[in-house]
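Quick one, probably user error.
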């Protein structure tokens, strides 16, 4: 915000420096220690100068040369270019700038001595450097003796400014190591100060490769420290949870048994295993905090229902919250069909209920008459109070913020914390779940129910849309149902809606013999529901949809899915969408339409989708493509904490850090405090939820 000068009432433009400071703060670099821990992502070697004669023979290499400008000319062919010839005693080199300012032309007049660094290429007139970094210097100016760090920086933050700020911070901080020398010896670790100084200013003798692949002992120390901090805070969060009170729900009684008996199928081994894990947790007197992860279609709902049955058998209420009305409604129908015949009283609460209906639901919940409550966010927003809440189940947990989950937990109506079961259909690789999520136990269903036919996935250029329409016609003639998923348009919901409507019209014209429905986010709940109902009943053969169908929709007869502009979707989203088919016994096909040309990342995503239907494998690829910060960022803000360690390659360090964390928490709490203060800062707050 520009400040107003009190005397002149004119806007004072904040100086460039303080603008840069603001940007630092945005990057989280508001303390000296944070700056010191802001480590280079790579280095530039400006310690050597190559003679121009040899540079002329080094095409493809990045080098630094020094010389005197012989000519400086502006060429105007299709676009203006600035061409320099640079010479030292050994030869001449051409330098080309495609963008330049008038004052640059003045600066770079013939006779000026410059040092330039850039990549050498074949040019029309021999070897040249395009857009090198350059510095005007005096003869004999000394070369740096250490590699030049290049820091991660946001837009508008110059490397020079960052380097200065970091150097200042380094002069001010307390270098006291958080770990005692005996431990450093024992784990073979470099001391903190040596490691940090080396990483900011590595001498020329250091093998650059060990810096870039982060295998240098200085990097190892950083990774170790980071992992140690994380393990310490994780274990403390676990201990804190164990000291809270929850009502034990130990009875697996009449309802649980009756429910299992009425199920039309038997549990898979994987389902049975996770049911046992949850059962054991529910018997304890501190709150369960468990993530149930399983690929789309792996059968999480029945596991959740069994957990609810145990809570009810023990005399407590259960609440199940889902992120969308469609999904909540599906849960409600399915679970009501299972449980109502057994005498269970259910309540249903979403934002779209009429006032009177809401009040009825709230009364049922508050009196304790409703044993099982199912709904959406409305469960948090409305004035809901439970009589005796024992278990909170959150489906698609990553779609809710931490705060929303907490709010639900706090409506329990007693001095007890309810147990929590969170479900996710986007599997998180195990290492990531263990190290990233706050105190959380993980149960995994790693097996699909029997009798599913595998999905075949094909990628098709959207030029071939006509063929796709023929396939839809053929599938419908064979009694199959089809989803057509409209492109994601992130910038504009209105545009997305427009596209969906247009696609619906296009398909209706192309396939007049079919019943074609349309669902999108802007429809009223009842409208949405009636379209879904018609699709479930088979009255609609082709359903045109935006990503509202991404989660939870379960129509086994749908066996063909077309995803338009598949290149715009993320991997996990594609996987979720595709999970809507392959639920019955018919062979299922997913067609990913793309618009060429494809970028590298999009191409990789589509190839991954074609090659695999395994959610865990896809999640791993997703992680590799996007990196953990972004991978988790979409799911749960604030917890992506590892900047330096890589969970795939540094697993051995994770193990060591975990062992040491355990020992320190037991024997040396002061060291734990000091270490967390340095490394976690504000972040530990996130771990408490
Ligand atoms: P998700 O894990 O994606 O939530 P659901 O719970 O919706 O999966 O289950 C997908 C389908 O599989 C449902 O129709 C469900 O009734 C069915 N199902 C679940 N478990 C089994 C099983 N053990 N055997 C056969 N079908 C099952
Ligand atoms: Mg589900």
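Nope, works fine. Designed sequence:
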């Amino acid at each position: 915000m520009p400040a107003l000068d009190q005397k002149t009432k004119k806007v004072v433009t904040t100086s460039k420096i303080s603008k840069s400071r603001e940007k630092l703060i945005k990057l989280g670099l508001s303390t000296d220690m944070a700056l010191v821990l802001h480590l280079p992502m790579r280095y530039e070697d400006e310690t050597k100068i190559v003679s121009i004669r040899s540079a002329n023979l080094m095409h493809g290499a990045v080098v630094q040369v020094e010389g005197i400008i012989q000519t400086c000319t502006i060429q105007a062919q299709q676009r203006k270019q600035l061409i320099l010839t640079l010479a030292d005693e050994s030869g001449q080199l051409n330098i080309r700038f495609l963008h330049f300012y008038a004052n640059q032309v003045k600066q770079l007049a013939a006779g000026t001595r410059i040092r330039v660094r850039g990549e050498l290429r074949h040019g029309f007139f021999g070897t040249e450097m395009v857009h090198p970094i350059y510095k005007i210097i005096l003869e004999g100016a000394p070369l740096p003796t250490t590699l030049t760090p290049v820091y991660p920086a946001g837009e508008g933050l110059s490397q020079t400014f960052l380097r200065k700020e970091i150097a200042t911070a380094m002069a001010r901080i307390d270098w006291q190591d958080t770990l005692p020398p005996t431990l450093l010896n024992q784990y073979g670790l470099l001391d903190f100060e040596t490691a940090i100084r080396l990483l900011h200013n590595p001498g020329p003798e250091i093998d650059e490769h060990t810096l870039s692949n982060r295998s240098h002992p200085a990097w190892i120390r950083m990774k170790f420290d980071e992992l140690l901090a994380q393990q310490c805070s994780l274990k403390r969060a676990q201990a804190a949870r164990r000291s809270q009170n929850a009502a034990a729900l130990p009875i697996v009684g009449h309802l649980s048994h009756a429910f299992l008996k009425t199920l039309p199928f038997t549990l898979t081994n994987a389902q049975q295993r996770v049911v046992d894990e949850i059962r054991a947790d529910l018997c304890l007197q501190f709150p369960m905090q468990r993530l149930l992860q399983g690929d789309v279609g792996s059968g999480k709902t029945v596991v959740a229902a069994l957990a609810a049955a145990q809570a009810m058998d023990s005399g407590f209420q259960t609440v199940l919250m889902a992120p969308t009305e469609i999904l909540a409604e599906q849960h409600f129908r399915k679970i009501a069909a299972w449980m109502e015949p057994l005498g269970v009283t259910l309540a249903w609460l979403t934002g779209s209920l009429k006032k009177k209906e809401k009040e009825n639901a709230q009364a049922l919940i508050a009196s304790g008459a409703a044993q099982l409550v199912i709904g959406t966010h409305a469960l948090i927003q409305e004035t809901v109070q439970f009589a005796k809440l024992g278990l909170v189940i959150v489906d698609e947990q990553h779609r809710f913020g931490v705060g929303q989950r907490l709010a639900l937990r706090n409506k329990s109506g007693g001095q007890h914390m309810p147990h929590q079961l969170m479900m996710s259909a986007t599997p998180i690789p195990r290492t990531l779940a263990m190290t990233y999520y706050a105190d959380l136990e993980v149960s995994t269903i790693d097996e699909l129910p029997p009798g599913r036919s595998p999905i075949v996935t094909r990628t098709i250029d959207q030029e071939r849309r006509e063929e796709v329409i023929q396939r839809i016609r053929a599938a419908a003639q064979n009694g199959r149902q089809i989803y057509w998923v409209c492109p994601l348009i992130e910038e504009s919901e209105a545009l997305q809606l427009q596209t969906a409507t247009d696609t619906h019209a296009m398909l209706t014209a192309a396939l007049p013999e079919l019943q074609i429905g349309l669902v999108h986010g802007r429809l009223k709940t009842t409208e949405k529901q009636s379209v879904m109902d018609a699709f479930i009943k088979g009255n609609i053969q082709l359903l045109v949809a935006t990503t509202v169908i991404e989660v939870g929709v379960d129509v086994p007869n749908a066996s063909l899915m077309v995803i338009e502009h598949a290149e715009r979707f993320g991997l996990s989203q594609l996987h979720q969408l595709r999970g809507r088919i392959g639920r019955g016994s018919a062979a299922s096909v997913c067609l990913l339409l793309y618009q060429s040309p494809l970028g590298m990342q999009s191409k990789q995503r589509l190839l991954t989708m074609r090659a695999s239907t395994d959610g865990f494998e896809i999640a791993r690829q997703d992680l590799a493509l996007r990196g953990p910060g972004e991978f988790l960022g979409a799911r749960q803000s604030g917890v992506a904490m590892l900047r330096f360690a890589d969970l795939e390659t540094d697993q051995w360090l994770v193990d060591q850090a975990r062992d040491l964390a355990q020992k320190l928490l037991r024997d040396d709490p002061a060291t734990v405090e000091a270490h967390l203060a340095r490394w976690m800062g504000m972040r530990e707050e996130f771990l408490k939820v």
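Residues 217-242 form the longest helix (26 residues).
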